[in-house]
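Ops channel
N.P.: pipeline sanity check, posting one input/output pair.
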């Protein structure tokens, strides 16, 4: 539960520049299907930014990576990848598509070798799926991810039924927060939700947009201490990403920061975080398979219920 120190220079372990990383195709320990969800409760903390860049960094190490935009109503991960997909997760709920057609049209090749499974923006139906629709989504989503070494799911802000489902089913959760009271409170709320739902996986914390690095580290340590004292829950702090003007420029360019500004302070911090997360202590077993087993159980038909909404 230690904080990964921020180092402003260099591309991280073994990488002098991005091109050398791509050529090397370096790989950490082999993965047998790993799934990580990225959430945080509060909007604007940078969940999509963190997801996009961690996905690219893992892909540069030679892994088969797919990023899933789990913000079912206001998706924006495709913008950070510079993509304009014609299909999105809504297609999984529509009849008439074969699995082969969906696989060919839905999953998009992205920068750095990452594949993207895009969500939809401004689609109210996806933002408020009922229990039956969530069950259908989970069953139809699985075949599109089964050949991946690493799946990163970018979750929406708040605690919509779909967000709660993905959080509770995942064996690894990365919570993105800012060193601000409201963001920290919402991050704690997610940890509390997971604890009260008997989540047995690992919880990681990333502090993003830190104007003052020592202060952000102190906020992270207070979160660790508070979760341990009041929830009896361990939280692993992956690191802090500093406020960086290069981030805004990368968003405007619609290109991940670690590719557009590889020598920026924020990119250097992200590489250290990716190294800690992807090549650090690995979970036991196939967490991708475990995610779908748990998700299917959570949305399985109830024996006696007349409620149409998903109450996870």
């Amino acid at each position: 539960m230690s904080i990964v120190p921020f180092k402003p220079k260099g591309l991280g372990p073994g990488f002098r520049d991005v091109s050398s990383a791509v050529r090397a195709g370096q790989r950490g320990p082999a993965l047998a299907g790993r799934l990580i969800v990225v959430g945080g409760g509060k909007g604007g903390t940078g969940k999509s930014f963190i997801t996009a860049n961690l996905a690219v960094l893992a892909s540069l190490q030679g892994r088969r990576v797919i990023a899933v935009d789990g913000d079912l109503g206001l998706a924006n991960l495709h913008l950070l990848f510079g993509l304009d997909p014609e299909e999105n997760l809504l297609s999984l709920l529509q009849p008439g598509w074969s699995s082969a057609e969906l696989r060919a049209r839905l999953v998009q090749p992205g920068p750095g070798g990452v594949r993207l499974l895009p969500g939809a923006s401004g689609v109210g139906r996806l933002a408020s799926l009922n229990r039956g629709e969530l069950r259908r989504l989970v069953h139809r989503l699985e075949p599109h991810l089964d050949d991946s070494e690493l799946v990163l799911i970018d979750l929406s802000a708040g605690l919509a039924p779909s967000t709660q489902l993905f959080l509770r089913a995942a064996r690894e959760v990365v919570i993105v927060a800012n060193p601000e009271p409201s963001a920290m409170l919402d991050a704690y709320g997610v940890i509390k939700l997971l604890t009260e739902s008997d989540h047995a996986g690992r919880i990681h914390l990333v502090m993003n947009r830190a104007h003052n690095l020592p202060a952000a580290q102190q906020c992270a340590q207070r979160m660790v201490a508070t979760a341990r004292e009041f929830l009896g829950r361990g939280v692993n702090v992956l690191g802090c990403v500093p406020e960086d003007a290069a981030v805004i420029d990368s968003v405007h360019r619609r290109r991940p920061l670690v590719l557009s500004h590889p020598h920026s302070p924020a990119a250097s911090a992200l590489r250290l975080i990716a190294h800690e997360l992807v090549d650090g202590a690995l979970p036991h077993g196939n967490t991708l398979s475990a995610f779908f087993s748990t998700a299917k159980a959570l949305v399985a038909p109830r024996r006696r219920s007349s409620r149409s909404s998903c109450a996870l």
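N.P.: looks fine end to end. The mean pLDDT is 86.
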